[in-house]
């Protein structure tokens, strides 16, 4: 670890991050879907701390193993709905900082404007956590 996690070192930062996640959750999104998105984005970003954390939350919520373990290959397995796949595609493209019209339009077919906003906030939050954890070399404790 290079430094303590910045959200623990800067007054108000942790609360701001928690508030962002609460705002996203208040849009009525399914909690398991948000956790699956967090896991997928964390895998993309190589954040072991978040991969560990969100996998444990999904297991605790009794999400079926195949939905947890296949999240990196979501396109090629039958475990996710079309709406969930649209959310994964949105998450991947937002993580790469470019959302194509095709991905946006597909997501908009499945999610209301408020739900899309909630998805976007959740995706932004997990990307921020990932970047902070990776840059400061946070590690999973045994």
Tags for this model:
8 helices; mainly alpha; 68% helix; AhpD-like; 142 residues
Structure notes:
The protein has a single domain (30-135), classed as AhpD-like (Up-down Bundle), CATH 1.20.1290. The two termini are 15 Å apart. Helix content is 68%, strand content 0%. The protein is globular, with a radius of gyration of 15 Å. It is mainly α and 142 residues long.
Radius of gyration: 15 Å
Q: Describe the biggest sheet?
A: none
Q: Give the helix tally.
A: 8
**CATH class categorisation:** Mainly Alpha
Order of helices and strands: HHHHHHHH
SSE inventory with pairings:
Blueprint: H1 6-9, H2 13-25, H3 31-45, H4 48-60, H5 65-69, H6 82-95, H7 101-110, H8 113-135
Helix pairs in contact: 2-8, 3-4, 3-6, 3-8, 6-7, 6-8
Q: What's this entry about, in short?
A:
By secondary structure, the protein is mainly alpha-helical. The protein has 8 helices and no strands. It has helices spanning about 5-10, 15-25, 30-45, 50-60, 65-70, 80-95, 100-110, 115-135.
């Amino acid at each position: 670890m290079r430094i303590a996690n910045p959200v623990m070192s800067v007054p108000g930062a942790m609360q701001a991050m928690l508030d962002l996640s609460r705002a996203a959750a208040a849009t009525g999104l399914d909690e398991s879907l948000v956790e699956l998105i967090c896991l997928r984005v964390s895998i993309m970003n190589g954040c072991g701390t978040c991969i560990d954390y969100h996998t444990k939350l999904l297991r605790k919520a009794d999400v079926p193993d195949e939905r947890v373990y296949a999240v990196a290959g979501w396109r090629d397995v039958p475990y996710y709905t079309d709406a969930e796949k649209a959310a994964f595609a949105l998450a991947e493209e937002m993580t790469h900082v470019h959302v194509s019209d095709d991905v946006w339009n597909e997501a908009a077919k499945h999610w209301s404007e408020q739900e899309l906003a909630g998805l976007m906030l959740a995706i932004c939050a997990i990307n921020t956590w990932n970047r902070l954890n990776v840059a400061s070399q946070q590690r999973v404790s045994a």
